[in-house]
Write a structure and sequence with these properties.
Elements (H helix, E strand, L loop, with lengths): L1 E3 L8 E4 L11 E7 L8 E3 L17 E7 L5 E7 L9 E4 L7 E6 L10 E8 L8 E11 L21 E5 L17 E9 L2 E15 L12 E7 L10 E7 L12 E7 L13 E6 L12 E7 L7 E9 L15 E3 L10 E8 L3 E9 L4 E10 L2 E8 L6 E9 L2 E10 L2
Antiparallel strand pairs: 1-4, 2-3, 3-10, 4-9, 5-8, 5-10, 6-7, 6-9, 11-19, 12-13, 13-18, 13-19, 14-17, 14-19, 15-16, 15-18, 20-21, 21-24, 22-23, 22-25, 25-26
């Protein structure tokens, strides 16, 4: 075993088992000292062209198990590599107990290939960094047949939001926009397309974090009021299990890290609403206002779902944004004789100016709504002559968040736009 990225790289030791107890009563075990000054991904590896020799991963042996004994909770990583150094990347599973033996199971179904000749072990893979030297023991690395993944008995409920109010990333109920990838090259997850009773579903395994990208055609969700996703997992969902959803907007330049990127991540567990649960569909219907740091939403480019330490097997369906039809968009009849401009500045604090114009005398209303479609303030409600107008909204008494303003002429909606109050 060769130790790497561990500062002075103290060698792996084969020693007497320091804790001869179930489930591991072996006489000898491997001792790995993860140094505080070592890299988070410090590990050890067998030799290419020797040791275990060349092997294939298929249905008969793609489940890898290992016994570990650790003083801390952190990920254990396993990677299999071909002679030229090629690999599909490591799989990470966290131990759940400390100072006792535990068997961890790694599903390599998505990495079934021929011609591997090396195995790499990361005993203490902690990206947050160590606060001390951690002595970790491992033993009994073994290969087992493929494990059948439990699946839902029925698909997720079919969404009923009218398609005219929806921007869909993935759902049989709607026409989907272009999504470049459901598992980006930089993520740590495996995804396959499956069907549940004829319904198309994304199945994520070995999920740590998955990058869903639509960078080639970014999405304008500024008029949307909710984000929805359905998930189902067979894994335990009690603490410390969490499921996270992050949305990323690349800004006006449409480029990653262009200086105007914004993002916001939400975390869900067994105590949140909705709460994580095992072996049942969980419907997330999240107000876009909950993504408070997503201050621009005209060039949405990424969604990242993550589950660390779990659940790591997740079925995903019905991923979409929608505008609450009972709110600001209940009347969509166009009025071509009027125009609603963009407010300025946007974002603002606490005053912004809204421009509008009408080409003939009419009754005009200009109202401010919160993210749930409730009227916050009526700025204009009067009969007006044909002209261009400016109206200020003074939001000293309003809370930070996303708001909409809607122009109606003679009872018909001209347009509705989004603005962000940042205090």
């Amino acid at each position: 075993w060769t130790v790497f990225e561990n500062d002075t790289n103290p060698p792996l030791e084969i020693i007497a088992n320091p804790d001869v107890s179930a489930p591991n009563e072996s006489a000898t075990v491997a001792k790995f000292t993860a140094l505080e000054t070592g890299q988070p991904w410090a590990g050890c590896e067998t030799l290419h062209g020797a040791d275990i020799g060349t092997f294939n991963l298929d249905e008969t042996n793609c489940t890898i198990k290992i016994m570990v004994w650790k003083p801390v909770i952190s990920d254990v990583g396993i990677k299999v590599v071909k002679p030229d150094g090629w690999s599909l990347g490591e799989i990470k599973v966290a131990n759940t107990v400390v100072n006792e033996w535990e068997e961890l199971t790694f599903d390599f179904t998505a990495k079934m290939e021929t011609g591997y000749d090396q195995i790499v072990i990361f005993p203490d893979f902690d990206l947050d960094g160590r606060t001390q030297d951690n002595i970790c023991y491992f033993d009994n690395i073994s290969f087992h047949p493929q494990i059948a993944i439990p699946e839902p008995d029925a698909p997720a409920p079919v969404p009923t939001i009218p398609e005219a109010n929806v921007i869909s990333l993935f759902s049989n109920a709607y026409t989907d926009v272009v999504v470049d990838t459901w598992s980006a090259v930089w993520d740590q997850a495996d995804v396959t397309d499956v069907q549940i009773a004829g319904d198309d579903v994304k199945l994520y395994t070995n999920l740590v974090y998955a990058g869903i990208e639509f960078t080639s055609q970014t999405i304008d969700v500024s008029a949307m009021t909710y984000f929805c996703i359905d998930i189902w997992t067979p894994d335990p969902t009690a603490a410390p299990a969490v499921f996270k959803i992050k949305l990323v907007d690349f800004g006006a330049d449409g480029a990653y890290s262009g200086g105007d990127d914004v993002e916001h991540e939400l975390t869900f567990d067994e105590t949140t609403n909705p709460a994580l649960a095992t072996e049942q569909w969980i419907h997330f219907e999240i107000p876009m206002s909950d993504f408070a740091d997503l201050t621009t939403q005209e060039h949405l480019a990424q969604m990242i779902i993550s589950a660390d330490p779990g659940p790591n097997t997740v079925y995903v369906d019905n991923v979409y944004f929608y505008n609450d039809a009972s709110g600001i968009d209940e009347n969509t009849a166009p009025v071509i004789s009027a125009f609603l401009g963009n407010n300025y500045p946007n974002p603002f604090n606490p005053i912004t100016t809204i421009n509008y114009s009408i080409s003939k005398p009419a009754h005009v209303s200009l109202n401010i709504y919160d993210a749930k479609g409730r009227i916050v303030e009526k700025l204009v409600d009067t009969y007006s002559d044909a002209n261009s107008y400016q109206k200020q909204w003074k939001a000293e008494n309003a809370a930070s968040g996303i708001y909409f303003y809607k122009l109606e002429v003679d009872g018909n909606v001209v347009d509705a736009k989004r603005m962000v109050l940042l205090k």
